[in-house]
Amino acid sequence: MPPLSRSGKGQSRPRLANPAPLGLFGFALTTFVISCYNAGLFGVAASDPINVVIVLGIFYGGLAQAAAGILEFLYGDTFAATAFTSYGAFWLSYAALSIPWFGVADGYMTGITSSSRAEYVFSRAIATYLLAWTIFTLIMTVGSTRTSIALCFLFCLVTLTFILLTIGEFGQFLGVHRAAGFVGVLTAVVAWYNALAELLDSQKRPLFTLPLGKLSSSAAVDDESRTLHGSEIQQ
Q1: Residue 219 and which of 61, 95, 100, 228 are 20 to 30 A apart at CA?
Q2: Are 36 and 42 spatial neighbours (Cβ–Cβ below 8 Å)?
Q3: Angstrom distance (rounded) from CA 119 to CA 20
Q4: How many CB atoms lie within 10 A of CB 234?
């Protein structure tokens, strides 16, 4: 594919870049850090302050990933657009839960007289929040069966991570919560693999390539389709 596309005025402009690596890298890195907390790795634990995760959730896992999703809309890749934009919103909302300025936790503490009851209700609210994202991820996993083996495997791991997090939150099971952290680390590694594969595939002369294992030849938006969409947008 030629790296340049013609605009309506006869000027050559670079075609739009593939936004998938950005979205996948944003998801992978943020997932890795929060999962290290959940799993109790590198001297941190789930009970420790997660300020670093909040910052990543806003700027990389949130804004950068959502931006990748919006660009996928321009390419006509509905699945990638829905996934990146939704999980970008997930990280932004997750960060908001822990930012005092939003007052989410304080709303429960001030609205319920008993502090123990307030903590219980807030915990159940978080568990329901995770359950909703588990259902969404399961739906996206079904959709991923029309993309590639590597991406489908990633969504299966994300679903398992959310299931464990939901069970751990509902039952206050520390062991299940920690297991979710280990699965989350594996999820991040698989997401990094997908991101690197997309990144290398986007280069004209990559040093090497990584197989993704196509499940369908007609479902995903391929490089030629991206180029055609990019050319139409530039005109």
Answers
A1: 61
A2: yes
A3: 39
A4: 17
Q: Is residue 10 part of a domain?
A: no
Contacts of residue 13, Cβ cutoff 8 Å, sequence gap at least 6: 4, 5, 6, 7, 234
The verdict on residue 161 lying in a domain is: yes
- Prediction pTM value: 0.84
- Quote the number of domains for the chain: 1
Residue at 97 is within a domain: yes
What HEC string does 50-84 produce?
CHHHHHHHHHHHHHHHHHHHHHHHHHCCHHHHHHH
Q: What is the pLDDT of residues 161-185, one digit of tens each?
A: 999 999 999 988 889 999 999 999 9
- Find the range with the poorest average confidence among 19-23, 64-68, 105-109, 207-211: 105-109
